[in-house]
Amino acid sequence: MRSIGFKVAMAALLTFTLLAAGWHFLIRRVDPTAAPAAVTKGPSISGGGITLASDTIALPDATAVLPEGPAGELVTRNCTACHSVEMITTQPHLAPEKWQATVEKMRAVYKAPIAPGDDLALVAALVSFQQPARTAAK
Fold it and tell me: 7-63, pLDDT tens digit by residue?
């Protein structure tokens, strides 16, 4: 019977072999010298044997907008620092209780600066952006 140390060593060797094979396959498929098409070189500065260059990236225009008024302003103030309008407006249709849980999670886990007094209005705004017939029951 083999010792546990031998089994661990064999598992580590197998894992390393699989990772090495995967890495080899990956680097053969990717051309490391190819630059992304949307990147253009900007100004640069050199000193001490190091050159720093600025790059610009052409991003698509934002086409989604939140409705004007208090609901749109509230969501803009509390959500768009981290989330794009597209992300906010394409979320699964949720019941108010699920949106409330999401707001609480954003505040507790991600430290979003959402005032607890804004919860009811924020949840109502998020629900109002959905089509009522598609709102989830749970």
Answer: 889 899 989 898 888 877 776 666 666 655 555 567 888 888 888 888 877 877 777
Alpha-carbon span 104 to 117, nearest angstrom:
12
Residue written as token pair 């629900």: 127
Q: Are 104 and 114 in contact (CB under 8 A)?
A: no
Helix (H) / strand (E) element for 53: namely strand 50-57
Q: Are 38 and 58 in contact (CB under 8 A)?
A: yes
Contact 49, 102 (CB under 8 A): no
Q: What element of type H or E holds 40?
A: strand 39-47
Give this prediction's pTM: 0.53
Q: Which two tokens stand for residue 122?
A: 């924020």
